[in-house]
Amino acid sequence: MESKERNIFITGCSSGIGLVAAIALKKRGYHVITSCRTAEDKQKLEAQGFTAVLLDLNNADSVQQAAHEVLALTQGKLYALFNNAGFGIYGSLVTVSRAQLEQQFATNFFGVHQLTQLLLPAIMANGEGRIIQTSSIVGIIATPGRGAYSASKYALEAWSDVLRLELADSAIKVCLIEPGPLATQFSNNVNQTEPQHKVQNPPIAKRFALPPEAIFPKLFHALEHPSPKVRYRVTKLTQLAAIAKRLLPDKLMDRILQNK
Fold this sequence. Notes:
The protein has 9 helices and 9 strands. The chain is of the alpha/beta class.
């Protein structure tokens, strides 16, 4: 199924999931509006033929301005919002300051809330639409060293569940995409609170890592199927993690996650 020139706004398009999704959806016929944090990345996106706006989810004024631009570019009608932008702060929780935790939530959660709130009227005005969130495997299971990032994704999962229920009587669907290990720059850009003891992905993650394009079947289904799924688990590790979380006792999960 191809789109009929539907407007979609994708956040976090400088690289990774956001960039490949923007390219694929443009080819699929969507009118794609991209976002990024820097003027340099904005120029790169525009050079590839995209409409781009600057957006720093950590800054409420930036979110307000970006939403204003998107509303103008779409004439107040938006089919889909793909909340993909985010970053990670890694390190044991005792090394994460309040300011760092607030920054983690500002980008991964508070900014998503504000942006969605500002753009939801345009999705409603469209008559139907989709709100899609990029979550994470650590939005299912919390692992040592990733507490701040995991907490922000747990919050996003709960928030998305409530928004889905609150919009149940509308034609707007809310979906979560839950990647596991993907071969992107995400891990290289993580803010480590303990540089001398960096949190590293386990070898199994690298062995089962997929390219970011692995999200395409899930993303297309979430955007275009009349009855999309609530959650799309992209990698085998994510699928196994969800099953283990549901079936295994907490103490056994603790031992597995602590490698004991």
